[in-house]
């Protein structure tokens, strides 16, 4: 009896930290993986194409994306590509709409044209400012919700089945994104001083291995879930104030952090208390504790 063919995944956003990690995880688990990348996207952090990894450069057109989907014939599409901006300027509007709405809609149009029906989509907890059903922290979060609304058409007319994972803060070994943990790492390593907000906002961090577990469980659920569209929060369940996070980082790194608390004001629409009216992916819980995760991050 011949061995079963590997499952096929198509991944967008593989040039990013989470997308690259998901690609490596899928390959390690025996999947055949097709990546859709822009012509300018870096492949640093990704294995060399070949074998079970296939790279497709998207020229920006819907028709070419249909050709890519037809060639890849994925069982599951993992959509992680997006442009994240905590605050935007007027000149950012085109980039935000093109990345988070235009490309996303082209993707599901291509799925519909090629008979691909299962999508794991990526959203953000920032769609739920002050724990509301919908209140975007920023325009980036608003574009995520706008695509979610567009998805309804493809679900009703083309039979797509969708799980949207709304991510909280994510981190892990090798993460070079310009986020709070890399600021703390720099302070620990070079002893510089940095002015920060008063530090009472709650931070909710999930380690990358746990994030990947959530994506794979979401993919499994697509074939069994009762509804055509479900959404889940991917949260540690244990948010802590930024001040406490900095203290824990100092303890883990063994180095003092020179922070001037209150040296700058809170950002406009700062998330003081993260969204907490979410449901978790059935069967998922975080396994990597924060102290362990920070040690892995700091010493990478």
Automatic annotation (TrEMBL):
<protein>
    <submittedName>
        <fullName>NAD-dependent epimerase/dehydratase family protein</fullName>
    </submittedName>
</protein>
<dbReference type="InterPro" id="IPR036291">
    <property type="entry name" value="NAD(P)-bd_dom_sf"/>
</dbReference>
<feature type="domain" description="NAD-dependent epimerase/dehydratase">
    <location>
        <begin position="9"/>
        <end position="223"/>
    </location>
</feature>
<comment type="pathway">
    <text>Bacterial outer membrane biogenesis; LPS O-antigen biosynthesis.</text>
</comment>
<dbReference type="InterPro" id="IPR001509">
    <property type="entry name" value="Epimerase_deHydtase"/>
</dbReference>
<dbReference type="Pfam" id="PF01370">
    <property type="entry name" value="Epimerase"/>
</dbReference>
<comment type="similarity">
    <text>Belongs to the NAD(P)-dependent epimerase/dehydratase family.</text>
</comment>
